[in-house]
UniProtKB/TrEMBL annotation, chain A:
GO terms for molecular function: electron transfer activity; metal ion binding. Keywords: Heme, Iron, Membrane, Metal-binding, Transmembrane, Transmembrane helix. The heme is bound between the two transmembrane subunits. Part of an enzyme complex containing four subunits: a flavoprotein, an iron-sulfur protein, plus two membrane-anchoring proteins, SdhC and SdhD. The complex can form homotrimers. CDD domains: SQR_TypeC_SdhC. The lineage of its organism: Bacteria, Pseudomonadati, Pseudomonadota, Betaproteobacteria, Rhodocyclales. It comes from the Bacteria. SUPFAM superfamilies: Fumarate reductase respiratory complex transmembrane subunits. InterPro entries: SQR/QFR_C/D, Succ_DH_cyt_bsu_CS, Succ_DH_cytb556, SuccDH_FuR_B_TM-su. It comes from Aromatoleum tolulyticum. This is Succinate dehydrogenase cytochrome b556 subunit.
Automatic annotation (TrEMBL), chain B:
PROSITE patterns: 2FE2S_FER_2, 4FE4S_FER_1, 4FE4S_FER_2. Residues 132-162 form the 4Fe-4S ferredoxin-type domain. GO terms for molecular function: 2 iron, 2 sulfur cluster binding; 3 iron, 4 sulfur cluster binding; 4 iron, 4 sulfur cluster binding; electron transfer activity; metal ion binding; succinate dehydrogenase (quinone) activity. It comes from the Bacteria. The lineage of its organism: Bacteria, Pseudomonadati, Pseudomonadota, Betaproteobacteria, Rhodocyclales. Binds 1 [2Fe-2S] cluster. Binds 1 [4Fe-4S] cluster. GO terms for biological process: respiratory electron transport chain; tricarboxylic acid cycle. Belongs to the succinate dehydrogenase/fumarate reductase iron-sulfur protein family. It comes from Aromatoleum tolulyticum. Keywords: 2Fe-2S, 3Fe-4S, 4Fe-4S, Electron transport, Iron, Iron-sulfur, Metal-binding, Oxidoreductase, Transport, Tricarboxylic acid cycle. It catalyses: a quinone + succinate = fumarate + a quinol. This is Succinate dehydrogenase iron-sulfur subunit. NCBIfam families: dhsB (TIGR00384), PRK05950.1 (NF004616).
Length: 128, 231
């Protein structure tokens, strides 16, 4: 019997695709960008409130001192660092600097590892 | 060896499934394509394209253990088992590992992949200096297997508008040809937010090209030519 097929299927399960390191740096750039867009207004508001008075600063400090909030802040530090580093990498590659495959692989690894280290340092500092 | 292969028959299946196979490769089976052809003698319903079996025709491009490549150039030695074979990502599946490449070739045609020269032809061929000919190296070798375009996230999300790495590499092959006189028109066609500028320099194309070419480098050169043109 002939099955009724609406449209030809496509294989595009991203979890079953083995991505090169450059693709991981790139998707990280996207994800960190979205996180920054969503969080920056709240962070700017928090900064504004913290500058109002000593009492409001203390309230905010208590708010972010819980461990899970520190992890959240470390995530945002990762987002800012990864977005900055991967963005500089993209800008340099756009003008032909480091756009060879081996250099691009190295710079992708460097951006990913450096952002992770900075985020870990931030987390350790907040949790300490 | 163990294999897990994407199966889809439009006449009997509503959706694709994975089928497991056990196969004992024989002496002389060196490449993945050899194993697939042996498998075909056991299960003749398994469908895949192949022709030259030596990386020249570009027919047997597929997703091998999560990465695109040519079955005929992939050694059996060192392949992680089960070897998972799926069709090229993002392309409509006709049957099993055979994909519909209509759109891919439409993009290729759109960049006018032939020499355009409106001057009177000389009596013999149009000559090039060795330096001019050298510029075509790394460009003319493309076999249009689609490993690059079907591994490009920008092509997955905009397959109808973004020309893709294969088409852009071919476009640059004619832009850099000293005998071609349509460079300005070619660049004007490519100067588009989708056709060229959907490329985000992810470089998946260069990572998987079975011929060792660099479509991302060609795209970079096109962008630079556009900057020179506008300044």
């Amino acid at each position: 019997m002939r099955a009724r097929v609406e449209a030809a299927p496509k294989f595009l399960n991203l979890l079953q695709i083995r991505f090169p390191i450059g693709a991981i740096a790139s998707i990280g750039h996207r994800i960190s960008g979205v996180l920054l867009v969503l969080s920056l207004p709240l962070l700017a508001l928090a900064l504004d409130r913290s500058l109002h008075s000593e009492a409001e600063f203390a309230v905010l400090r208590d708010l972010v001192s819980a461990p899970w909030r520190a992890v959240l802040l470390a995530l945002l530090v990762w987002a800012a660092t990864h977005h900055l580093l991967a963005g500089i990498r993209h800008l340099l590659m756009d003008v032909g600097i480091g756009s060879g495959l081996s250099q691009a692989r190295t710079s992708a690894w460097a951006a990913i590892v450096a952002a992770a280290i900075v985020a870990l340092i931030a987390a350790a500092r907040w949790l300490a | 060896m163990r294999l897990s292969i994407y199966r889809f028959n439009p006449e009997t299946d509503l959706k694709p499934r994975m089928q497991d196979y056990e196969l004992a490769p024989e002496a002389g089976d060196k490449k993945l394509l050899d194993a697939l052809m042996r498998l075909k003698t056991i299960d003749d319903s398994l469908s895949f394209r192949r022709s030259c079996r030596e990386g020249v025709c570009g027919s047997d491009a597929m997703n091998i253990n999560g990465r695109n490549g040519l079955a005929c150039l992939t050694p059996l030695v060192g392949l992680k088992e089960p070897v998972v074979l799926r069709p090229l990502p993002g392309f409509p599946v006709i049957r099993d590992l055979i994909v519909d490449m209509t759109q891919f070739f439409a993009h290729y045609h759109s960049i006018k992949p032939y020499l355009i020269n409106d001057t009177v032809p000389p009596e013999r061929e149009r000559l090039q200096s060795p330096a001019e000919r050298e510029k075509l190296n790394g460009l003319y070798e493309c076999i249009l297997c689609a490993c690059c375009s079907s591994f490009c996230p920008s092509f997955w999300w905009n397959p109808d508008k973004f020309i893709g790495p294969a088409g852009l590499l071919q476009a640059y092959r004619f832009i850099s040809d000293s005998r071609d006189t349509a460079t300005a028109e070619r660049l004007a066609y490519l100067d588009d937010v989708y056709r060229l500028f959907r490329c985000r320099t992810i470089m998946n194309c260069t990572e998987v090209c079975p011929k060792g070419l660099s479509p991302s480098h060609a795209i970079e050169r096109i962008r630079q030519a556009l900057v020179r043109e506008s300044s």
